[in-house]
Design a protein that fits this description.
Helix content is 35%, strand content 24%. By secondary structure, the chain is of the alpha+beta class. The protein has two domains: 53 residues, Helix Hairpins (Orthogonal Bundle), CATH 1.10.287; 202 residues, Bira Bifunctional Protein, Domain 2 (BirA Bifunctional Protein, domain 2), CATH 3.30.930. Strands 1-5-6-10-9-8-7 form a seven-stranded mixed sheet, sandwiched between helices. It has a three-stranded antiparallel sheet with strand order 2-4-3. A two-stranded antiparallel sheet has the order 11-12. Strand 3 and strand 4 form a beta hairpin. The longest helix has 30 residues. It is elongated, with a radius of gyration of 22 Å. It starts with 6 loop residues before the first helix and ends with a strand. The structure holds adenosine-5'-triphosphate and magnesium ion (MG). Magnesium ion binds next to strand 7 and strand 9. Magnesium ion (MG) binds next to strand 7 and strand 9.
Length: 278
């Protein structure tokens, strides 16, 4: 009979960062137990080394560090950071055409009848932009980095709470929009420490056709441009480009991790490392 690791052993080893890409078979259960113990010991040792290094040197976890690099890079590029509420009104969702009939509606976390946790940053950015466009000359460039919430049937790259970076530039000349989207995608990818990636056309439930940023088969970001059919609801007529990235997905690809939970806001992981290691 083929003796393999039990599913709880596999879960434990994976949570400690093992990719377990090669199948392991054993002659006896005693051999399996001893191999498991040995692997677990090495992984725990590595995890402790990592946490000690974090304590000694960096002192900020990956998610905080990537946010810091992005804030620095985008502000250098002339983008102004905005910080808006995570609780938004039902009316804001409706202005994004997200009502009962919309695919994203079932994913929304409701706080009460008329308030929800934002599933995206766009409604707040539209709202702030409308005011800023009355005050500032174009191009108006703003961005936000913050938590968004969606009920997901948790896969290895979907979180219920994830960190979105959304940037928007108002007043980009119509003929320069595609080029500008590429420049801005490059800027975000480079600031994150990522290089080669692809653009892929995708049908978005909110924005119609979007151009996604894809690497190693995973969608990292999604871009859009306007004038757009959603704009009139927000009283906006300007041309624009915008792009939104999930920071945990960027980190997942950069750190070559198979588990997005390790890089998310977490009480079980710190800096990608499982904490229950005694
Ligand atoms: P997917 O098709 O992978 O579910 P999406 O099309 O729903 O993603 P968008 O609404 O375009 O995603 O959001 C922009 C970015 O936010 C995505 O490219 C991804 O990086 C990130 N993102 C979206 N949903 C999640 C989630 N549940 N967990 C982590 N990141 C997410
Ligand atoms: Mg998409």
């Amino acid at each position: 009979m083929k003796i393999e690791f039990t599913s709880s052993q596999i879960d434990r080893l994976k949570s400690l960062g093992s990719d377990l890409s090669r199948e392991m078979c054993f002659e006896t259960t005693a051999q399996r137990e001893s191999q498991f113990k040995e692997l677990e010991k090495t992984l725990v040792l590595n995890a402790k080394k990592h946490l000690n290094k974090l304590r000694q040197d960096e002192r900020k976890p990956l998610l905080a560090r990537v946010q810091e690099s992005l804030v620095n890079r985008l502000t250098q590029e002339g983008f102004v950071q905005v910080v808006t509420p995570t609780i938004i009104s039902k009316k804001f969702l409706e202005q994004m055409t997200i009502d009962e009939s919309h695919d994203l509606y079932a994913q929304v976390f409701w706080v009460d009848k008329n308030k929800c946790l934002r599933p995206m940053l766009a409604p707040n950015l539209y709202s702030v932009s409308r005011e800023l466009l009355k005050i500032w000359e174009k191009p108006v460039r703003i961005f936000e980095i913050g938590s968004c919430f969606r009920k997901e049937s948790q896969g290895h790259c979907h979180l219920n709470e994830f960190t979105m970076l959304n940037l928007v530039e108002w007043g980009t000349p119509i003929g320069e929009r595609d080029q500008r989207i590429r420049e801005l995608a490059d800027l975000v990818m480079n600031a994150t420490g990522l290089t080669a990636y692809q653009f892929e056309a995708e049908e978005s439930v909110v924005y119609g056709t979007t151009i996604d940023v894809v690497k190693d088969g995973l969608e990292l970001g999604s871009s859009s441009k306007g004038p757009h059919p959603l704009d009139p609801a927000w009283g906006i007529t300007d041309s624009w480009v915008g792009i939104g990235f999930g920071l945990e997905r960027l980190l997942m690809i950069r750190e070559k991790k198979n588990n997005i939970q390790a890089l998310a806001r977490s009480i079980a992981y710190l800096d990608g490392v499982r904490l229950n290691i005694k």
